[in-house]
Amino acid sequence: MKKLILSCFILSLAGLQGCKNDEKQKESEAANAEAEKVVSTQCYKAIYEDDTIDLKLNTLKNGKIRGNMSMKVSGAAERIGEIKGEFHGDTLFADYTFTEGTDKKAFKNPMAFLKKEKQLILGNGTMQTTMGVTYLVKDKPIDFELVKYKFDSVDCVGN
Length: 159
Prior knowledge:
Layout: H1 2-35, E1 38-48, E2 51-60, E3 64-72, E4 79-88, E5 91-100, E6 105-116, E7 119-122, E8 127-130, E9 133-136, E10 150-154
Antiparallel strand pairs: 1-2, 1-10, 2-3, 3-4, 4-5, 5-6, 6-7, 7-10, 8-9
């Protein structure tokens, strides 16, 4: 009889522990969802010769940036993809992920944008690829002066 009571007690403790884990997981998911809420949206456009780039950035409650970018570069197919990153001071460091070609191969490019008043300037930096991951080299400066693309703030269309 004692073994039966002890077994029931252990099983009930295990069940309660499972419920606590579910509650913690739900709380964690709720906190993540709250952090992912959009607090502001800003749109930008850069035009250089025949090239046009449209950029929409959503600032999330947790401070991270998510958005979309459409690149129409002369002589190339339009690239539409997602941009994710965060600001470090006045510089947005982000990854631009897009698919290209008939096989829909995915590419991920690092980018750095300097925020100057109502403008974002796409910098030129030294990139390196290690084990299939491309990144901006930390010890090399990013040039924000001799650049093609300067994004001006524009009204967002189609929100």
